[in-house]
Amino acid sequence: MNETIRELMTRKSVRAFEEREIGAAEKEAILLAAVNAPTAGNQQLYTIIDVTDQQLKEQLSVSCDHQPFIAQGKMVLVFCADCRKWYRAFLDAGCEPRLPGVGDLLLAVSDATIAAQNAVVAAESLGIGSCYIGDIMENCESQRELLHLPKWVFPCCMLVFGYPTQQQKERKKPERAAMEHIVHENSYRDMDEEELKQLFSSKAGARTYEEWMQAFCRRKYNSDFSREMQRSVGEYLKDFDAEK
Fold first, then answer.
1. Domain-located, residue 230
2. What is the pLDDT of residues 118-131, one digit of tens each?
3. Domain that holds residue 60
4. Which of 204, 225, 206 is nearest to 214 (CA)?
């Protein structure tokens, strides 16, 4: 196994950081890796917001489900799916562009998250830990105000970086599902009840599969923050309803 694949296999989320700052050279390397990611038609349908203001970090730690470690991150990047800049450039160049739609948004989200993963891999190679924050998609009114997000710009993910503490280095990575359940050959294969149980039962621990699944459904899928994410993303989607 080469070093790149080893790092991909062992990388895990880091939520506690040393006081050591990330140097300018390391930060530039991470950002360069991000902007050199694969992109649809070389359009780079994203904008990266580099959050350097400590007060803003603290505000984001509150607006993103009250997670204090966000404010302690040594580098915080918000990856925005950006359909606005191309639309405005088309107008400025005398084109007659259609309004951005949901297809454009999904393509831009793909571009943005690919760039984010490049940043994660680059940071890992430098010994710098990271954690994805999907909660940036919640509370759209607050996030729009904090980050001055205009129409057709959607914050699809946030990354918090820092050098991991020894405890974080030693913490076991959560087990991933067996590949046979994840990789389907040639077409989608709808798994039956037994295979779904095989897929998820390792997560149950001391509880029965049904107990764990019901608790997880309440804590995650049916939670208040999950419902807020659905509402918030729905608000962003209104920008991309070209029929209105």
1. no
2. 999 999 999 999 99
3. 3-174
4. 204
